[in-house]
Design a protein that fits this description.
58% of the residues lie in helices and 10% in strands. By secondary structure, the chain is α+β, with helices and mostly antiparallel strands. It contains eight helices and five strands, in the order αααβααββββααα. Strand 3 and strand 4 form a beta hairpin. Strands 1, 2, 3, 4 and 5 form a five-stranded antiparallel beta sheet that branches. It starts with a helix and ends with a helix.
Length: 306
């Protein structure tokens, strides 16, 4: 740690403060990005649930019109929903549950459970969300599988009138793939802006903190300058201007009192050694402090007289 000991007092104060502030700002930036990403995912999930509800209502409408058995009609309805640009849907796929397959058949190949996520939704009746992925077109996609739960007589639509199921059973699901590429680009832009803001704030803090530390360290620097000047010139009449009443100011006043006492003590010695030349001696401006011991000076004066 010799490098630390060789640093100036200003750097010893500024480096830890700057590092702590940088860590705080980086932590804040991290949580800001996490929060924004969570909002993006939440909004995509909400749009997926709306899309799943649109699919369910559209399938109900086809059922009431007697067109639900036509695969082309089902495909046409799905394409119409996917075509709504405000929803940013990349793909929708209907999945038939076991109860629906037992009553109306397996349906088209695309309507069969395709992976573990589909099976998990059909078995549990709970929504499943997949992680963000990238496709061959470099789109950022978020897949949500929304279950279709059978409703009963007390609900707006009674599924038991057309399906041999109990209320609460899973009729099927809708696999909705949302295109969140624009949201992902927004996250990247936000992250870049936060990094730029981080650098600008750090630079501003560097100068602001540096100026504040300079004001704190300035009395110490003044004290150091006076001590070095006295050391080089031997001139104890060099005075130290002290302002304020903090710990540094109190230490400076103590040094100034010590310097004054030494000046007066040396004048006293000079007067005792050569009393015949009082004109060469400056008058004492202050009485020596009573706490100062003159025994050593008296001994020097006695030696000089002999």
């Amino acid at each position: 740690m010799n490098w630390w000991g060789n640093l100036s007092l200003k750097n010893k104060l500024q480096i830890p403060v700057q590092v702590v502030l940088m860590l705080i700002l980086l932590t804040g930036q991290h949580f800001a990005i996490v929060w924004l990403k969570a909002n993006v995912v939440e909004n995509a999930q909400r749009r997926a649930e709306v899309s799943g509800e649109l699919v369910l209502r559209s399938m109900n409408a086809l059922m009431f019109n007697g067109q639900i058995s036509d695969p082309e009609k089902r495909k046409q309805v799905i394409n119409q929903i996917v075509g709504q640009k405000e929803l940013n849907i990349a793909d929708i796929r209907i999945i038939r549950g076991r109860a629906l397959q037992a009553q109306f058949g397996a349906g088209a190949a695309s309507e069969q459970p395709a992976d573990d996520t589909d099976h998990a939704v059909l078995n549990s009746g709970k929504k499943q969300i997949k992680e963000l992925t990238h496709d061959a077109q470099d789109r950022v996609l978020l897949r949500t599988v929304v279950p279709f739960i059978a409703t009963g007589k007390n609900d707006a639509i009674d599924c038991t009138q057309c399906h041999t199921v109990n209320p609460g059973e899973v009729l099927g699901a809708a696999s909705v793939v949302m295109d969140v590429t624009d949201d992902d680009h927004f996250l990247d832009s936000a992250n870049r802006v936060l990094w730029i803001a981080q650098i600008v704030i750090q630079l501003i803090l560097f100068f602001v903190i540096g100026a504040a530390i300079n004001r704190i360290v300035k009395p110490v620097k003044n004290l150091q300058d006076v001590i070095v000047k006295i050391q080089k010139s031997g001139d104890l009449t060099t005075q130290l201007t002290v302002t304020g009443n903090d710990e540094i100011s109190q230490a400076s006043r103590s040094f100034e009192a010590l310097r004054t006492s030494l000046c007066e003590a040396l004048r006293y010695v000079h007067r005792c050694i050569d009393p015949a030349e009082p004109a060469q001696l400056k008058p004492l401006k202050h009485k020596p402090q009573q706490a100062f011991s003159f025994s050593a000076i008296d001994a020097v004066a006695d030696c000089c007289r002999t």
